[in-house]
Amino acid sequence: MDSPESSPPASTSNASETAPVEDSPVFSYISNLSPLQPVKSSSVTQGFPGLNSPPLVFASPQLIPHKRAQFSRTSFDKLQVRLEDSKNSVTTDKGHGEQNIQLNTSIAASTEKSSDSNSSVDELIQSPSGSCEQVLEDIVNVDSSDPNFSFDSTIKKSERNDQLANAPTCSTETVENFRHELNSGITGELAVTHPFTCKETEDAQTELILINASASEKAMGQGDEVSVNCSTVGTELPANNAVVYRSEDNFMTELQNAKTGQAAPLDQSSHLLTGSKAFQNRGVRRRCLQFENAQHNIISNRLAQDTSDGEKPKTRFLETPLMPIDGKLYPQNTLNSSIKLPKPSGFGLHLNSILNTVQAGSAATINVKTAQWDCVSATTDGNTHETHACASDGSSLSLATNVVEPDNNSVTLNSNSNQSILGNKRNTEKGSGLEGTNNLSPKKKRMNTTESDDGYKRCNCKRSKCLKLYCDCFAAGIYCADDCSCQECFNRPDYEETVIETRQKIESRDPFAFAPRVVQHIIEQSPSVSRGEDRSNFTPASARHKKGCKCKKSMCLKKYCECYQANVGCSDGCRCEGCKNVFGQKGEYGMAKVFLAGEDSQETTDDLSAEKCEIDASRSHTYHIEFVNPNNLTPLTPAFQFPNHEKDGSAAWFPSGKHFQSPESGLTYASPYAMSSASHNISANNAVIPESSKESRHGNGNTVDELSAARSRSSLVWQGSPITPMAEFSGSKVPQEDVFEFGLSNTVQDDTPEILKDSPTPLNTVKANSPNRKRVSPPHGQPHEHTSSSSADLRIARKFILKAVPSFPPLTPCIDSKTLAVQPDSSPENRDDNK
DNA sequence: GAGTTTGAAACT
DNA sequence: CAGTTTCAAACTC
Ligand SMILES: [Zn+2]
Ligand SMILES: [Zn+2]
Ligand SMILES: [Zn+2]
Ligand SMILES: [Zn+2]
Ligand SMILES: [Zn+2]
Ligand SMILES: [Zn+2]
Fold first, then answer.
1. Protein CA at A509 to nucleotide C1' at C1, angstroms
2. Which candidate among A259, A477, A495, A748 keeps its CA 20 to 30 Å from the CA of A569?
3. What is the predicted pLDDT for the residue at A586?
4. Residue A241 pairs with which residues in a beta bridge?
């Protein structure tokens, strides 16, 4: 009632208020128009300070889409790819056509380290020209829904869907085709946008990120790849390279074709995109599985098809709408080059947020949205080439995205480096335990009450109207579902404007509010593995929360602790008292964990914690360090920015795409939403579909197992380098458990330079095994971890994990794509070398 | 399912 | 930035 806010909270400005009533497009429009956003200009400011980096990490979507459905189905988006710089864009031509589409993107970013973590962000953002940093803007957007894309300077965006064609980028034809296809077959839901930004920073560590997306339907095949070249980027310009892809199934395909056609690896950097279709709903879990199986490519179609195909399930995310507004926002941002967008929100939003964008010109960003989602995985093998983009000059990126379902949001991106992102908020799931169990079973189901099918949790908010971060749904960037037991809920598509405004408001305070909270640093692993498995990479061990917990009574042994809930150990950023986090106590992280491969690895668990620190410290040098600087952690810096904006916003999503490296360490963030969203769908518009399903949101049960689920959910994995730890796992399989946990959340990998320094892979070994185990088995506590955790993790999906990978990639920072491409795999070598 | 505990989010 | 309040999930019973 009336309580204070009677109505929807007004978000930010109130003025605008968006009452629910206002859903109408008009409002949206207005909203968009309104300068509010600028709020933080930060976005701009921060974000683009000039340059590069993206300020926004998450960016919420500014625009509001009206409904996704419309979009998606109707027309998709198109994909555009442009490369500005030297070349132009690549277009796709034709193609092969396979059904699968994959995108790989690798990005190399340099990580910089700025001094402080915190600052780092700012720095990034601010740095205007980025002095050192260049920003490349590469944007990749894949939206199905959104028509608009914006690129920076160079790039233009197509404005609307229709217009899209115009764009220079990809061949219009292709796009159109996509549309058709999409329309027809696909629901169109997927949109993936990844914003990436590459920056070079001083040192330039660059990170690469690869994302692969495969379409489910199509098949596995992977086959197609698309590569785009970016040339270098100019330093300043952000825009230089922008790539936008829209993927949809069809879309993807075509792209592929095109890609192939053109394919080229172009110059310095090339991008590969692989898109797969997204699946909608359900699938999350399944996706995961599939994911694994396919590794990157494959995604199960079913999901997509099933759900997606025709119907849209409900999505939590954005179903709604996007607002018409779009244009405006976009244009501005886009056009100008950037962006200006007020809002940065970036991470997933419900809605789609739109994001804003940004871009600023400078920074390079790539956005990927995925609407429906699927999973993203990187693929590599085949493609391998991946590329890298580097920024240096140009930066190239490769993204591969698979979308998975929204459900969990899992998106996995693999970067060579391996970063993953976890979702924002909590995992959520309550039932984790169950799930774990369930995982395997296909059916399973469901879980607890809390969760819904899709995997998302359902909230029970009574006084927050689901417009505050207290609400898990809202925090995750998704709309409340029917299953939610919330009261006076405004987190619904009908109130999209309100939701968006509120988001923006929140973001204005904390740009990373919707960003993934967990970052992983992973170590690289063997290349081969990595690719395929990416997901596996998760390493709980390496992952940590950005903000850290402040537990006083739970000793970080219960889910009250966000770190624990996310299945990650506490880091220096945590202010917990009496930390006994099974995944790692505070000190450890900072220290660097070392796992020795052989030696210590096993120990990991408990021992590790206490001892680790010590050990680590000492060894760390020797062995490896995982992760991240403590500093990084916390702050994480996220770097994301999102550029986008758009209405659809989608774009943003991935904002992260950007992978940002953290300046400091080079972490990368993925946008949470992105990830999550991705899952949700948010991505682009966010559409999230969260659930996918139609059915229920959550879970569906299905299939897949936990792992998959987990993966999917969270997982966005970026493969940066080849690293993937998985190797050990090898295969597909990844330990379930392990995976799960991690998987749950999205992960982003970070590269950490530091790591590089040392060792190569501690994690691998250890992690592979240990991580999970540690947790799990353990001694301590683990309570349920295995299972539950996994499940939990899944939930976490929302969260993202970032992994930092030091990986070698970095080594190359940026570098060329080619090199990278090759190298990545070689990672091992690198390691050795590094070592 | 009600009630308690908990720590993040929000607010001051 | 710290202290307090609010909040909903996690947990307990
Ligand atoms: Zn709620
Ligand atoms: Zn809800
Ligand atoms: Zn609600
Ligand atoms: Zn804690
Ligand atoms: Zn903690
Ligand atoms: Zn702790």
1. 15
2. A477
3. 84
4. A83
The protein footprint on chain C, as nucleotides within 7 A of a CB, is 6-11
Contact call for residues A402 and A213 (beta carbons, < 8 A) = yes
Q: Which residues of chain A have pLDDT under 50?
A: 1-6, 10-58, 62-314, 317-345, 352-448, 522-536, 592-835
Token pair 């309570």 is found at A783
State the pLDDT at residue A555. 93
| CA dihedral over A376, A377, A378, A382, signed as positive or negative | negative
- Report residue A40 as tokens: 């933080």
Q: How far apart are CA A58 and CA A365, in angstroms?
A: 12
Q: How far is the CA of A562 from the centre of ligand 5 (A)?
A: 7
Q: What pTM did the predictor assign? A: 0.47
ipTM, two decimals, is: 0.98
Q: Which residues pair with A659 in a beta bridge?
A: A669
Decide: helix, strand or coil at residue A331. Answer: helix
Q: Which two tokens stand for residue A11?
A: 């978000």
**d(Cα A43, Cα A413) in Å, to the nearest integer?**
24
Q: CB < 7 Å to strand B — which of 430-459 in chain A? A: none
Strand C contact with A789 (CB < 7 A): no
Distance CA A205, CA A749 (A): 14
Q: How far is the CA of A556 from the centre of ligand 4 (A)?
A: 4
Confidence (pLDDT) at A248: 30
Q: Locate tokens 């991008």: which residue?
A: A271
Rg (CA), chain A: 21
**Which nt sits closest to A554, CA to C1'?**
B6
Q: Which ligand is nearest to the CA of A630?
A: 5
SS3 A303: helix
Structure tokens at A298: 């494959």
- C-alpha distances in angstroms, A184 versus A91, A177, A303, A692? 23, 10, 17, 19
Per-residue flag: A462 CB under 7 A of strand B: no
Give residue A622's pLDDT: 22
